[in-house]
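Hi U.,

Before I forget, here's the chain from the pilot set. I'm dumping it here mostly so it's searchable later in email.
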Amino acid sequence: MTDEYRQRMYALLELYARPLRLSEPVICIDEKSLQLIAHSRQPLPMVEHSPTKQDYEYVRNGTTNLFVAVEPKAGRRIVEVTAQRGKIDFVAFVRDLLTNAYAKARRVHLVLDNLNTHFRKSFDDVMGKRAAAKLLRRVQFHYTPKHASWLNMAEIEIGILSRQCLDRRIASRELLQSEVDAWQEARNADVRTIEWKVTRQDADQKLGRHYVSTLAC
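Structure:
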């Protein structure tokens, strides 16, 4: 485990340990690709003593993408369904977050993994450097170490979304958006937070044997 890995991990653990501050939200972002699948035959409805039955064959209706932003301590999440997950789509998603949901925040901390579309260059390419600089003037980027996406709490939220909302056949983007909207509305209304329990001490105890010494050749 490199020194860069350790320092990035420590920085994120310190960020997660900070108390909730409405003026400086900590927002974790990730995306999930999803295949749209329709039934090849109409399922048989559930009746007494017999569950719903569906044919094992299905129809592929292409793929789609979900961008997920979660503010763990505030219990707030925003999910958007898009056709793709390229840099244009990512920039549009972040721009919407900054100009609408978090327009009043003094500083916005964005936690991301190392996907090539997640870096500032994407904003420069899509918006131009001047417009990108204006949009991102309040933003501080925080990146997980490479191969350590477990440090991005958006993955936890995506796991919950997958179990509670995406564990069945969904045939179209329109239906997917409707289902996701209902899911996030319910979770936001209940203020479902994520309690992060891993500390720097925990990480050192569990991962210390993998650290590379700064004196190593």
